[in-house]
Amino acid sequence: AVSNDLWRRAAACLPGDNTSCSMRAAVVDESAYDWEDDTPLAIRSEKAIIYELHVGGFTRHPSAKVKHPGTFAGLIEKIPYLQQLGITHVELLPVMAFDEQDVPPHTAELNLHNYWGYSTHSFFSPHPGYCVTPQQASHIREFRDLVKAMHKAGIGVIMDVVFNHTSEAGAEGPVINFKGITGNSFYLTDKFDKRIFHDYTGCGNTVNANHPLVSNFIISCLEYWVREMHVDGFRFDLASALARGEDGQVMQDPPVVWGIELSQKLAKAKLIAEAWDASGLYQVGSFPGYRWGEWNGMYRDTIRRFLRGDPGVANEVATRICGSSDLYQHQGRLPISGINFITCHDGFTLNDLFSYNHKHNAANGESNRDGCNNNLSYNCGAEGPTSNTAIKALRHKQAKNAFAILLLSHGVPMLLAGDEFLHSQQGNNNCYCQDNELSWLNWADSRQNADILRFVQQMIQLRKRHASLMRRNFLTGAMLEHRGIADITWHGLTPDQPPEWNNSENRFLAYTLAGLDAEDADLHVVMNMSDDKHSLHLPNIADRTWCLAVDTSLKAPHDIIPSELQKPLKKPVYNVDSRSVVVFENIENRLLNDASPGFFSKLAHMKIFDLNE
């Protein structure tokens, strides 16, 4: 358990003794901890819904109303909220001990700190800043309490881990541990001048991950967090840096990556790669191994363009929402290999994706040079906050469109914490140093935007009740014998009209997704990102009647209708608004024709339809 109470980074960058202001550590005996028979959860990946959050920012705002803001304990207090939302896993931004002082000089002059935590220095210690009593070396117990509480609630814990670089940075960086005890073996350095650090991470150094000693260190560390902390998986920051050999070149079969995959102690842990690094290596669809999931950056970019209204992407959207078979199927991998996301901690929040065309990062102290310039965003007609009711309504509809598409897609969906109630960072797309109200979740937004929060909760429930959205294998278009229809059928504006695959201006998709067995409802999905309204004819499926489930153009509570409140459509025709997503579920006609005593009263009680109709 480490302490940074005396730590001064600047002193550790200079020659000489810095003992008076160095980090401190305690060896902790936690063998008596009572796990209460807890074990890591075994939630199948096709059923997973991941929720990426920052431990500090989730509860640090006063509106969180927790006893211990910004800590593991504070997050425990919010578990009932996570249960109500319906997610299955939290993915915690880095919680291994990191250097909060690791920021550029101009940023430090503004009294800003490293907030996200991608500056690890002590890989076996939870971060002291997230503990209630770190001076008592309670780090391990407090983190274990969080994991145990999450597991009791049925929620898995995935850690965002940073093994591609450390907080020691390059030659001018501080000496904390590895520079002092491993010589040049821990980092990639120049072949002829070991004082020169190779930087494939944008952070000053690159860990020499495929050196035998370093590889053993990394795997042992991961096994420790599974064995001693009961975590359920890991997301690897800039994972492609781990595929580089000791000469910096990309290896076809990097030992550390395969060692992680083949470790028996990690056999049940989820492994997720951010399959790129900061020097142009991009391995989405080709990251080494078979067990690894990948942050699907191609899904993010394609869906953002579709939501923005770009023409010519509908064909690729169809591939992405069906699990990105072009990336994974030829390798014998599955739809669960892709972690689908539209927003994450790095970049615009969902609210800002539809509120800003440009980044606004001046508060970071780097003259707006930092952060991504290619955001694929659409401000809906005004840059930033507006009083224009039409623009505000479109932004709300676009947020619902994004959630609907994400949760209807095959693969593993990941949501960014706060998006479900439209958290804004005021256009800052790189809040790595903003440990303040710009980044902290304001829980008043969950009341102000309760309609969006409800929509997300109900979309998660819709996903969970349809096994067809959680298929383990790719769709084929083949007929299902138990239903007499194909697993997926694509349509134009009418069921007998083929899709406009060859129309480069097409911004409309419609398809029918068959239930996995005879008892499952089918889904008919329409995604209209054009500026035109369409009169849609629904397909005729024997012995089934369609009910409206989702229409993002409608106001709450009519925008999404729980199954027990749905009513059969009187006619198989529906008017689809511009820039909207519409979903229909069907019901077996035998239920409607069942005339047993009390049946219609039961349906009326369920509000499927009114007895007077």
UniProtKB/TrEMBL annotation:
Residues 52-463 form the Glycosyl hydrolase family 13 catalytic domain. Keywords: Glycosidase, Hydrolase. GO terms for molecular function: hydrolase activity. InterPro entries: GH (IPR017853), GH13_cat_dom (IPR006047), Glyco_hydro_b (IPR013780), ISOA1-3-like_C (IPR048650). This is Alpha-amylase family glycosyl hydrolase. The lineage of its organism: Bacteria, Pseudomonadati, Pseudomonadota, Gammaproteobacteria, Methylococcales.
